[in-house]
## 1
Amino acid sequence: MPTPSALEICRTDLFTREAELQERYPQVLVDKVLRIREMYNWFISNPDGTDREFVAELCQRHDISKVTAYADLAIVKTLLPTLATASRDFHRWRFNEMILATYKMAEKRKDTKTMERAASSYAKHNRIDIEDEQAMPYDMIVPQPFTATDDPRVLGIEPIPNIQQRIAEMIDKYRKETIDIEDVQFEEVDLEFPALFPNETPDNDDEREENLL
């Protein structure tokens, strides 16, 4: 069985314990997964970080080439939307971090208006003024089993005896009754203009014929 790519491993085992990773994959891939996990967390902690900062941080931490660092960056950027869209927790966490940082800065400056606005945004975003909604008991929902069948009795309809034979007989019957289609050759239309328009002059006849065409 071929070894999966680093991206495939990260999609399924990004947060798997290191000991389990070593049991499943070569050490080179394990090291790469651990690097990507570490830098994934760095990316979340530094949402405004640039690609250059990411690569510089990765090269400094693990002493790898820029080519390898950019390859890791590509994997992290591929994983971020997938993990972030799995739930709204990622965006909620990022918003809370930004609001709390704003609140702390305003608190140091004793800017009570900004502190109040930050606190209001935090409360509104996290809906702390609304009672928690009751979770749906999805584990108690039993899926409805369906089984394919061609028996019309499940709909309350009695089946027609020998239905396949009846179908074959009807097809044969209507094939015999079908009128054969005869192909005919195209013929020019002969509009006898003098008989149809006796009061028209020849010039008018030519003009009328052009209009008809």
## 2
Amino acid sequence: MQNIQDCLTIIIVVLFNLGTAMIALDLSITLVQLWNRIADTDSCLLQVNNVTTFQQALINDTILSPTAPVDCITETIALEVDVELLALLIQKLPQTRARSAARRLGISDKVDGKYQKLGILRMKLQEALKSQPQKVQQVLSHLC
């Protein structure tokens, strides 16, 4: 009888320690994921700001140049939005920010009362990027 009680006590202690270890592991994994999300958000913001600053400097240099032809100025203004960088940014957007961007661009994020999948939202954001690149850039710069 004493051996059964000792065995049950050991099992209870082992289960308690196992549960505590699982909670600690889950907490550490969650903190690492949070850290990565914050790092991704910061890099996203830096990328958008760097592109905007570079493009504004390029436009200013072209406009201020006395020998710049009119075609070059309009071409520089048309290239103001870096479509490739924004396309990569759209592919890295988490689901909540993709939904926010879609709503701000007038893309429905719900169909029949259910949220659309992230891949579909990204595809629609890519289509919007092709048709209205300046508006998409504005929305993404406010989100990141």
## 3
Amino acid sequence: MKKLIAYSIYISCFFLINSCSSKDENCTKTATITNTYFLDGRQHYSDKIIELPCDFPDPEPLTQIEPPELEGFTYTILYDEFIPDTGNNTSRWRFEIKLNNSKDYAVKGIPFLTVNAGGLVSKSNYSDKTTSPCYEIGANASCTLTYDQESPIDEGVVDIKIVNVQYFLTN
């Protein structure tokens, strides 16, 4: 009886393994490609399921990619004001930006601003110091990113302007 069961398992495995030979042009298999990217100091993952020919090698286990940007994303700068000296030995920067998601599904992500501060251009996330971080924007909706901070005066900075806004996905 044990030999019959072992023989049945062997035959079943043989047919499973050989049912998708390279000679069968229509044979396909599914594979999961796992991508990773770093955004705002944290690692995020993105899985994509694809169909491959049976004789195609399996994909690498993990691939590092650039953070995915929300397609169709738009923004409107409602105001952007920098006061280099408030009179209290501080400078003040405040802005309000309307972030728009034109997709018919909600998205999760992080807004990044490219700013020009006294000729130095840099990209950063200011969400941790805003009243609403906009880590999620509903379907066909918007979120308003509001920032208002005072800092000790930086002698080299006489003006700060927003150059660009991007929304990188985390889901």
## 4
Amino acid sequence: MEHPPRPSPEALNGTVRIPYLFVLDEMEAAGNGDAGVALWQMLRNVRGRIDARDELPGILLMGESGELLDAVPELRTTLRGMTRLLRETRPDDDTRDGLVLGCAHLGLWAEGMGACRTALSFFALAEEMDPERPHLGYHVGRLARKLALYDLAEPWLKWAHRKSRAAGQWEVAALCASGLGNLYRQRGNLPLARRFHGFCLRIARRHDLRTLEGDALYDLAGMSFDAEDEEAAMNYVSDALAAYGPGHGQVYALAHDVAWFWMERPGRFAEAAEVLLGLVEHLWEPRARLLLFSNLTRAAAGAGWVKIFESAWAETLVNLRQLPSEEGHAVAMIHLALAAESLGYWDRASMVALDALRIAHRRQESEFILRAEAIHDAVQIKMMEEEIAPGFSADSPKRNSFLSERAASTGDALVGAMRARRDGAPESPIRAYIGQLYCT
């Protein structure tokens, strides 16, 4: 079967006169313009080395003492090492391998900075230099999917999948199948997405790839929740927990997503609140913690746990003040507004909905502008009508009792899996805070 063509740098750049110019824009937006110039020049240098073959191309970085080489401390060693390799008059396989690894390192760093087109370009060059490493092709496809370049991502993921299977690199093959599943899910082809996630699951089980097995089950659980097949979703969640094992880092992400699905779809606020409470002592990154407490506020309100609602509300406000960039502020305040609305606290709901609206306008977050406006308008109508009934009800008594029992047991399993620590670290002092939530 014919392999798909490699991605063209010009296809991303839009012009051949100034290649990779988008790197400067991406890194400037990330707040590191000097790094942008260094990465832009390095891409052009590597491209020139590939095109020159055995000839020595000109090097754009102005000597090894140039300031650009030291623009980013964590990249200094990589940039200096690649510059030396680019100047070699008799490049060999070791030269190529060093440049491949350097490009991969720079690509991963750029992705971490949010510069995904830059990252894609580095991985594309690395793959071009060494097409026998299928994991490089996987990264090209993965980044293209992340950039919504689906027509580019699909052939790359398929090509890397076939090549990794032929080489017996089953972890890469499973990752490619998972990437294709996510791609088809993004494009709305759910039957094909489910098929590829199932394919990833079979590869992972056959070759004892436990984390990838858990990831495939995680994806299948999310698809089942989306399809409102709660029983199947909870079966997948239980199997994912068994695959990950207690204390695995993915358990926390899985627990948070399950809690969110319970709030958004079936309205299982009590079960969601129990799981979110279990996450309090494990999530410490500021933005994740802000989202956690805002979700806990909403779940506690929906469950009718007023004291926990008040504590989580206050903690959310503390976390808002600790993030001056306002990243995630609008969505957190929307959760607070929904929580206040569900308890009939109209003044509070109106206040935070307006705050969310102002922040969303400042950050030009159109989705959150619409949601905040809808909540504020609904609250104003309820205030005028002096309605007492909450906008979001607690769990319906008509809900299937079997699924309620399954949800409770799944919640217990998630909380139990979070508590186990593989690294032997001591328990967090936040446990005292959780105890106060229950006792006050």
